[in-house]
Specification:
The chain is an alpha+beta fold. The protein contains five helices and seven strands.
Length: 174
């Protein structure tokens, strides 16, 4: 039980604020989860708790220093979802621009262009595989969190000029 309590106290890494740790971990590619067991289910639950505490809509393992391929999402009018070892199977050619933010880059909100729809394959916290077709905000949040597993941040999808302006503001703030 003590281990579960320790897991529940996840700290969200933010760009620039943890010195080098946050900057390095947020830029690393996450490794596959080899066994979906009770510990992974506990981590999924703790990610959701941390997501709710942060008032976000998605959270990936690397954002809390857990460098495995897992993320959770919970958008309005949908159920909480856990994605373990996800693979994006397909995205639409049609794209949409929408304002995004990130719990790991607090206070920054910018328009990001992403595919309008996607098809993704993953496993849930019980080890059951599923394929999901998503559109709208759910598709956007899934793609945003998937990027975290690849060591990417949403600002990496901006022009170099915009990204550098944001990074300069973050550096100044810290």
């Amino acid at each position: 039980m003590e281990r579960v309590q320790k897991i529940e106290k996840m700290k969200i890494l933010t760009l620039g604020n943890e010195g080098n740790e946050g900057n390095v971990l947020l830029r690393q590619k996450a490794k596959p989860i080899t066994k979906i067991n009770a510990e992974i289910a506990e981590i999924a639950a703790a990610l959701l708790d941390t997501l709710y505490c942060g008032k976000g809509v998605g959270l990936a393992g690397p954002q809390v220093g857990f460098m495995k391929r897992i993320f959770v999402v919970h958008v309005d009018k949908d159920m909480p979802r856990v994605f373990i070892n996800p693979s994006v199977l397909e995205t639409s050619e049609e794209t949409v621009k929408y304002e995004e933010g990130c719990l790991s880059i607090p206070g920054v909100w910018v328009d990001v262009i992403r595919p309008k729809t996607l098809r993704i394959k993953a496993w849930n916290e019980k080890g059951k595989p599923f394929i999901l077709d998503a559109d709208g905000i759910l598709a956007r949040v899934i793609l945003h969190e998937y990027d975290h597993l690849e060591g990417m941040l949403f600002i990496d999808r901006l022009s170099e000029v915009k990204r550098n302006r944001i990074l300069a503001k973050i550096k100044k703030r810290v």
